[in-house]
């Protein structure tokens, strides 16, 4: 458990969040490593060619990373993205003078850092449900450019894990409520992909209007293709 961030550190991190700092570098690296770990833990991983593995990872890495951060924030009781040390990125866009009066920038940041967390509170997600949701994201057979073999493998696995989630919810909540929550779980997946697209829009907007280099939000070259 990281130590709580001090008020001085909070101010400094808020001021530097949109720059390439140690915290930003660590965040992106850790999230990518977590994604790799989750993917490799699935039985389907070893059945896929390396090329298909890379295609899947590149397609889902950002949505899965956001899903994980959203869920962690939800478990901490926060309606905005927050770390265990208490730092929340939305503070940068709410308090920095150069950002807080830019309604477009604030709206984009809100769509990435806060709004996608609201459904977690509306639905209420357990760790077991979230684990199955993560697996389902990786098992999408409709990811572009996959080989036919990979699509066939993923299709079977997707059906298996989807049914596992549905059966779990039926047993837990009953048929009607379980089916409703099953649909809501897929809404969370959709929201994570929308969040990833909004993140790219946020990055592009800052690059265009604030001259923030894209590299400030990405990993160094040696990590970008992990």
Please trace the helix and strand order, writing H or E for each element.
HHHHHHHHHHH
Multimeric state: single chain
- What's the Cα radius of gyration? 19 Å
Question: How many separate helices?
Answer: 11
> Which residues sit in consecutive blocks of at least 5 with pLDDT less than 50?
214-226
Q: pLDDT average, as an integer?
A: 83
What name is given to the CATH topology?
Answer: Retinoid X Receptor
Terminal Cα span: 26 Å
CATH class call: Mainly Alpha
Biggest sheet features: none
Structural class: mainly alpha
Tell me the CATH architecture.
Orthogonal Bundle
Number of domains: 1
The percentage of residues in β strands lies in under 5%
Protein name: NR LBD domain-containing protein
Pfam family, one: Hormone_recep
Family: Belongs to the nuclear hormone receptor family.
InterPro entries: NHR-like_dom_sf (IPR035500), Nucl_hrmn_rcpt_lig-bd (IPR000536)
What does this structure look like?
The protein is mainly α and 226 residues long. It contains 11 helices and no strands. 71% of the residues lie in helices and 0% in strands. Helix 3 packs antiparallel against helix 8. This is NR LBD domain-containing protein. Belongs to the nuclear hormone receptor family. Keywords: Receptor, Transcription, Transcription regulation.
Provide a concise account of the structure shown:
The chain is built from eleven helices and no strands. The protein has helices at residues 7-16, 22-41, 50-75, 90-95, 97-100, 103-113, 118-123, 127-138, 148-173, 175-210, 221-224.
């Amino acid at each position: 458990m990281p130590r709580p961030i001090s008020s001085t550190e909070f101010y400094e991190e808020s001021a530097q969040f949109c720059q390439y700092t140690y915290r930003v570098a660590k965040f992106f690296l850790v999230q990518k490593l977590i994604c790799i770990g989750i993917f490799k833990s699935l039985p389907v991983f070893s059945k896929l060619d390396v090329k298909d593995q890379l295609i899947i990872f590149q397609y889902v890495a950002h949505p899965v990373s956001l899903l994980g951060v959203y869920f962690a924030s939800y478990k901490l009781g926060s309606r905005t993205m927050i770390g265990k040390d208490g730092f929340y990125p939305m503070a940068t866009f709410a308090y920095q003078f150069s950002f807080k009066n830019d309604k477009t920038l604030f709206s984009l940041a809100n769509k990435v850092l806060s709004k996608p967390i609201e459904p977690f509170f509306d639905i209420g997600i357990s760790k077991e449900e979230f684990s199955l949701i993560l697996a389902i994201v990786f098992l999408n057979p409709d990811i572009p450019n996959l080989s036919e073999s990979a699509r066939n493998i993923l299709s079977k696995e997707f059906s298996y894990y989807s049914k596992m989630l549905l059966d779990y919810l039926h047993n837990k909540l009953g048929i009607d409520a379980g089916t409703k929550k099953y649909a809501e779980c897929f809404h969370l997946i959709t929201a994570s992909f929308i969040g990833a697209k909004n993140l790219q829009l946020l990055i592009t907007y800052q690059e265009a209007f604030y001259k923030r280099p894209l590299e400030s939000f990405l990993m160094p070259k040696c990590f970008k293709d992990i």
